[in-house]
Amino acid sequence: MTLPSGKSIFSAIARFAGLSAILFVSQTAFAAAPEPWQIGLQPAAGSIAEKATSLHNLLLIIITAISLFVLALLVYVCLRFREKANPVASKTSHNAVIEVLWTVVPVLILVVIAVPSFRLLYYLDQTKDTDMVIKVTGNQWYWNYEYPDEQIGFDSYMIDDEDITGDQIRLLSVDNEMVVPAGTRIKLLVTGNDVMHSFFVPSLAVQIYSIAGRVNEAWIDVPNEPKVYYGQCNQICGVNHAYMPIVVRALPQDEYDAWLASAREEFAL
Ligand SMILES: [Cu+2]
User: Fold this and answer.
1) Per-residue confidence at 6, pLDDT binned at 50, 70, 90?
2) pLDDT over 80 (residue 7)
3) Please, are residues 186 and 134 in contact by the beta-carbon 8 Å criterion?
4) In the chain, pLDDT over 70 holds for what percent of residues?
5) Looking at the DSSP assignment, which residues form a beta bridge with residue 138?
6) 245 CA to middle of ligand 1, Å?
7) Ligand 1 mean position to 141 CA, how many Å?
8) Domain 46-124 has CATH 3.30.460.80
9) Confidence check: pLDDT of 212 > 90
10) d(CA 214, CA 191)
11) Distance, CA 31 to ligand 1 centroid (Å)?
12) What is the reported pTM?
């Protein structure tokens, strides 16, 4: 077997990178789904996800700095105090300055983390300014969506591998999607019928448990562009846990109204 020349490797990498970039842009333009070899979070959609992503980025900087600092200390100690360089060990047992420092500095770091963290928690808690309500019920192994104001409700099952068509995504596409108008804030009332499930849509930064006999409240801020957001059950709930995905489809108001008109006939409660 002959190896390709350096030039052709570079052009192959360049072509691959270009192709990936095109695929990435074309897919993310219409859908928020995981990408092959993705590192990091899915692109943030809506104000909650933007705040969660910026908190994540802040934490990433802080934990990276702490890890590098601890690594540097370890390397320094290993070299400076190894037996050869330091044959007589120090008998020091106390150092007031260092003890104050290693107490105060972590406290300050935790305060820096706590402020944006609590700000986000309280932001998540404000479900009062929402435009509409959807009740989400977790079942073994599918989701059920009810629109109480419209008196409609339907089950949402994953599309099996052999039935996948067109632009449907394996393990993520469903037969009946949770359709919402773009540019709205939606209150979710999440409950369960059997074991625990968890309603999780990464790009919208919503994750909330679905528990029988209890209604958990959350809200999502759907951006003002038509797009499909994919999610999955995030609580191990039995053999088909991996096969109860979530699809939130945001449509422009007129298309949503058209969907609603047909849904009123098909899914009337
Ligand atoms: Cu599950």
Assistant:
1) very low
2) no
3) yes
4) 89
5) 143, 192
6) 9
7) 7
8) no
9) yes
10) 6
11) 22
12) 0.81
Q: What is the largest CA-CA distance in the chain?
A: 86
Ligand 1 center–CA 230 separation, angstroms: 15
In the chain, where are the structural domains located?
7-39, 46-124, 132-266
Tell me the CA–centroid distance for residue 256 and ligand 1, in Å. 28
Residue type for position 37: W
Please say if the pLDDT value at position 22 is more than 80. no
CB contact set of 114 (below 8 Å; sequence gap of 6+):
none
pLDDT tops 80 at residue 197 = yes
CA of 235 from ligand 1 middle (Å) equals: 5
Pick the residue with more confidence: 236 or 27? 236
CA of 142 to the centre of ligand 1 (A): 9
> Which of 2.60.40.420, 2.40.30.10, 3.40.50.1820, 2.130.10.10 is the CATH number of 132-266?
2.60.40.420
Let me know how long the chain is.
269
Distance 4 CA to ligand 1 centre (A): 46
Q: How far does the centroid of ligand 1 lie from the alpha carbon of residue 251, in Å?
A: 27
